[in-house]
Amino acid sequence: MCCFDAYDGSGFFVDAEGHIVTNYHVLEDADMVASVTLADGRVVDVELVGADKRTDLAVLRAKGEKLPCAALGDSNDLMIGEWVIAIGNPFGVLIKDPQPTVSVGVVSANHRRISPSIGEGERLYQDMIQTDAAINPGNSGGPLVNANGEVVGVNTMIFSPSGGSVGLGFAIPINRVRRVAQEIVQCGRRRDPWAGFKVEDVGGLRADFRKQLGVSEDAGCVVVNLLTSSPAYKAGLRPGDVIMNINGQPVSTSVDLDFVFWSLFVGDPVILEVDRAGQRQQVRFQIEELAH
């Protein structure tokens, strides 16, 4: 498997052009990334193409010839109980050997959403693959592979009271990784999705304010700030609307909106189901890029 050791993390080649995927958190404390070590011991120069802190992914590009390339699978086809292999270089700074380590387990669950507190609000881990294959420090950024040798995820994090693997590992699904990496390669960055409005949780509003707004719902998010230049406003969204559903997913709090919006890309469609003074209606628009 085309795996490499990067400082105290791992990664893998995703195409014949030498592009490498790893976790953002593997690189974030580095002053620079100049080279990586391949499994065969070769040290190749690399440059950073771009990174996305929110989805915890980064793309490098290696300079060299006869670089390996991993076969990418389809994370939507994963079944609970299916065998998977976690590949990486755990504790690579202590074990001076470029050969990757493998650990075997199963898919324990799909579509796990991790509390935003884990990423301190700066990373949103959603649709995560949960596995009991051992993932330890240094495995981050390495591939999670199915029985056919296809990469189905990027090993990213564990839950552990001890710091070591206790069978609660999580990987970012390769279908999301592929799309984020393609945008980084094409644009040099992950473009920030923008809809142009802010909300407050209905459950957090005072009763008198809810009455003043005409809000009759007990859950959802009420629009409190809306730019007239935004795609949402142009599509008909208005202050006081209560968002109940986005793209078929129920909305209880603003966290639900955050997860959905950050999974979208510029040009993706959005369908909001809103309650406006007791009447349900839909608002449709396309995501635009946030101007900086």
Any descriptors?
38% strand, elongated, Thrombin, subunit H, 6-stranded antiparallel barrel, Pdz3 Domain, 292 residues, mainly beta, 13% helix, 5 helices
Description:
This protein folds into two domains: 1-190, Thrombin, subunit H (Beta Barrel); 193-289, Roll (Pdz3 Domain). It contains five helices and 20 strands. It has helices at residues 24-27, 174-187, 207-213, 231-234, 254-263, and strands at 3-6, 9-13, 19-22, 35-38, 43-52, 57-63, 83-88, 101-112, 128-131, 143-146, 151-158, 169-173, 193-194, 197-201, 221-226, 242-246, 249-250, 269-276, 279-286, 288-289. A six-stranded antiparallel β-barrel has the order 1-2-3-6-5-4. A six-stranded antiparallel β-barrel has the order 7-8-9-12-11-10. Strands 14, 15, 16, 17, 18 and 19 form a six-stranded antiparallel sheet that branches. The longest helix has 14 residues, at 174-187. The radius of gyration is 21 Å and the shape is elongated.
Give the beta-strand count.
20
How many H/I helices?
Answer: 5
Q: How much is the average pLDDT?
A: 88
How many domain units?
2
Helix content: 10-25%
Spatial arrangement of strands, main beta sheet? 1-2-3-6-5-4
Distance between the termini: 40 Å
Classify the beta-strand content into a percent band: 35-45%
Summed up:
With 292 residues, the protein is mostly beta strands. The protein is built from 5 helices and 20 strands.
